[in-house]
Design brief:
The protein is mostly beta strands. The chain is 7% helix and 46% strand. It has a 23-stranded mixed beta sheet that branches.
Amino acid sequence: IMKLLLTSLLSLGTIVAHENTIKQNNPLVNNSNMLKLTTKCSMDTSCSYKVQQFLDGCKYNCTVVLDDDRNNKANNNKRNSGITSFLFTRSLNVMGTQILRFHGTCEETRVSLLGNMTFLNINNSSNIYISNITIVARRFAYTVVTVAQSQAGTIIANVNTSIYQYNSELLWLKRAQSLYQIDGLTYSDARPTIDGMDWINETGIPLTWTEKSKSVATITFPDIGFHFSPGDYLVIRHFVWEVHNIVVTSTSNVSLYNVKMTTAAGMGFLAWDCDNISLNTVDIVPEGANPVSTNADAIHISSCRGHLSIKNCRIRQPGDDCINVHGNFAIVKEVNQSMDRKHQVLTLGVGGTADGSTWKQLYARPSFRIGDKVMIRSPNLTSSFSAEVVAMHGSTATPPLQIVVNSTEQIVIQSYVTSLTASPTFTLIENNSLGSNRASGILLSCENARVANNDIFDTSSRGLDVGTYWNSFSEAPLSQNIEFTGNIVTQCARGHRTLSGGHWGAGPAIAVSSLHVNRVVSVYNNISFNSNLVVGLTANTIAGNPVVSVSQVYNLSFQNNKLNSSCSNITAKLMLTSDFNVQQSGNLCCSKQSCTSCS
């Protein structure tokens, strides 16, 4: 534990130094490589063209300023008052740029996306600073409806078309990739319904729109076992994984400050194979009374390196996890000896159950670089050893991928291969407010992390989750040296029902799970929970689920936490299963009437 605390302090200092270095690149310094854009470009829809032309021609020390042409102030270091809006009609691509500042000068500088598209796609660049912008969309990639009828295998639902407009030219409006229930239609009550329907399928189902009046339409779709009732509120997601607001790949030193997003067709911020990321005061919150922000995860960090900091962010109503940080693994499909008999050539393929036969989702791709230290685990995870990548052939974009490792130890087909280097050196998730979302609050499969003073509430799955989804999109089974302290977890794990009649998400509000495979060697080590407050959910407590469940962790510290049940006469439960070297003291398990020491 002392080693973990020392590592945390040293890494915090490194993160602060990294953030200060980025801030020294003032977005408004005099710079010959500067494009200052005014809202006039929205009138002739030239904003995207002008910015892309500038980005194509500038590869070093570039600044894009979205300026308020109503106030031509000499001192541009002061943000202008009011709101300005810039219309972007296509995605912006940044490739091979060193030092890019993208900045809004107004009190609120709005980037309005004409369609469901990625705003910024950044690849193979460095020192990216994005600040003071708000990303909005002309048409949400979801539609919220109220069920009117459910009979004869057909569901008819009402739509307010003054909010969710129908355009016959937008073919994606005629398809639903996902349906899930929420408690209400407004921001204040749009929580996932306790044990409501949650259905998702990439193929989707057809939707038929019928206009009833100027502001009312109906959507008709087949009832394939949803069992909805009149009056149910549903979110129909037309997209889930395809389009994300900001995508950053193979890029170093990325900073977002005072960035807001009100909606996204997929994820809000997605980073893969990057080094050093700082997200500070990033708000991903639906605008006004709209009940959904992003269709998928709000913030997703996959196979990134260096230091990761997520602080002072506010996230509401994403269609999946609020924050997801993980590495990735690949599966050994073929093993061959090298000519010198000192190396082995591993042909790698997909291992996750949800990603088919290719790494079609960017965040499911493993990241390997020459020089990486990799961990090779047997198929049942009962044994493991490390090696170094000395050569590579192919790409994760189109498997199979081949890596050459400097090991002669026996490697069998179906072994797991994970880059230990493709995980943040240290992760800080601190002072964030997260909730009312379809899946987990904070989901981690990484090493060396501090999760502190976060407020997490109304999640349909776990509030804090370590490792329980590791085999869905090839998330690496690596979780060690993680500290959870001072977090408040309220009314989480609300649960969903599925078409098969089962339940998804209902269970512990906090979970560290290693029970998905039988093995001797644990992949979860040195995890501590200190001074957290957890308020369990009534329905789950009655069902016999613990509020906190931790299983098969080596070196577990669980001290001075308070677990509250929200049900009278039922005490919250703490379940520790087959954990080793456990330090447990000062924990209270409470019902509405009394508290007792957790056992």
